[in-house]
Write a structure and sequence with these properties.
The chain is of the alpha/beta class and 392 residues long. It has 18 helices and eight strands.
Length: 392
């Protein structure tokens, strides 16, 4: 093992570094220029501009599939807004999926506004009160960006959103405006009408990138990230075409180019070839499945684990019985059969299961549910969750 590691390090030292700035292909990198998103940037800026003359901006929701530039546009516009030097402006960015709970999401907001929230021990109501008191006392003007806001609503309900959208009198002379970012165009359907009426003041839908647009984005990033001639036009075209076939996902296109560059660099190549890109794509697909499972809410994981107990597939009745038994053993509350059917549809869309309707002749139709991922991948990923480690 030691000899193999030494050989890896030797090749790395003797090989030619292909990257000049690897960070230019990282998910966190926000370039100075966002190609093909000028219209969206201007629209967001127009909504938020009133804050510069002490007026509360409207809440705004940014919709679009993964990799369509929603987060990058929000962050770029807000960075420019902060550069205007407005002293009582606070911008707080929270990714609710990464925060994972209501409490942690609020704790991140609290930290931005100068309120220290203990790791645990307070009720949600108490945390909200402390943050609101600080905003009111200091007259702070807060813009709260809630990335993947649909995850928070689906997992914990819309209680926090209700507090935020009805907070006007409790915050004066300060205020709080929301920028919600969502991959799900339908997430509002389950919101309380009182939340819906005040949350959706402005909406903006981000279209997927075309293959030509992805090619332009990758060309700019490659120029910054690689040495000259490492990423040829042919390599960029292939990355753009492969990502363009999956709903114009710029994030996937950029990740594909980065991983392909890493493959080429490890093998001592001077440029990225088709083989590097295809191997990078295979690796990303495997990682995508693991990340999709890892980020599921606990009930979705329970249903997925129940499906895995039936190797040849099962029907909704058998599955629901297995699911409720699993919930009982894990000590979590089970959902209704109707809600389970809804989650099965979500898992089907993610490509983790197949839930197809099968005709049984005169006996009607039934839904046949089958796992589409390997048991090893599922078991490895769910074992990281203490709720299911013993059952996976």
């Amino acid at each position: 093992m030691s000899d193999e590691i030494d050989e890896i390090f030797r090749r790395a030292k003797e090989g030619r570094a292909l990257f000049v700035d690897r960070d230019a292909l990282s998910p966190e990198y926000i370039p100075e220029r966002l190609p093909f998103r000028d219209t969206q940037m201007n629209s967001v800026a127009e909504v938020l501009a009133p804050i510069l003359h002490e007026s509360k901006p409207s809440n705004i929701l940014l919709y679009g599939k993964t990799g369509t530039g929603k987060t990058a546009v929000a962050r770029r516009v807000l960075s420019k807004l902060q550069a205007e030097g407005k002293k009582n402006l606070v911008v707080s960015y929270v990714n609710t999926r990464l925060a994972n709970t209501e409490y942690r999401s609020l704790a991140e907001l609290g930290q931005s506004t100068g309120v220290q929230i203990p790791f645990t021990g307070l009720s949600i109501g108490e945390v909200v009160d402390r943050i609101f008191k600080e905003i009111r006392a200091k007259g702070i003007h807060v813009i709260l960006v809630m990335d993947e806001i649909d995850y928070l609503v689906k997992t914990f309900g819309d209680g926090i959103l209700y507090e935020f959208t009805r907070s006007g009198d409790r915050l004066a002379p300060g205020f709080l405006s929301l920028v919600g970012i969502s991959n799900d165009l339908k997430f509002k359907e389950g919101l309380d009408p009182r939340v819906l009426s005040s949350l959706s003041e402005e909406e903006l839908v981000f279209p997927p990138y075309t293959v030509d647009e992805l090619r332009g984005i990758l060309t700019e990033r490659a120029h910054t990230a690689f040495r000259s001639s490492v990423a040829s036009a042919a390599a960029i075209n292939l990355c753009a075409a492969m990502a363009g076939s999956e709903h114009g996902d710029a994030r996937r296109a950029i990740d594909l180019l980065r991983i392909a560059g890493e493959v080429a660099e490890r093998e001592g190549l001077k440029e990225i070839d088709d083989s590097c890109i295809r191997r990078a794509s295979d690796k990303m697909e495997h990682d995508r499945v693991e990340e999709a499972i890892r980020s599921l809410p606990v009930q979705n994981k329970a249903i997925l684990l129940a499906v895995s107990k039936f190797r040849g597939g099962t029907n909704t009745g058998e599955l629901y019985l297995a699911y409720t038994n699993l919930c009982r053993r894990a000590g979590i509350e089970s959902l209704t059969q109707r809600r389970v059917s809804g989650i099965l549809a979500e898992l089907d869309l993610l490509g983790l299961i197949e839930a197809s309707v099968v005709s049984k002749g005169r006996r009607g139709r039934t839904k046949r549910i089958q796992l589409l991922i390997g048991d090893e991948t599922l078991g490895k990923t769910l074992s990281e969750d203490t709720t299911f480690g013993k059952n996976s």
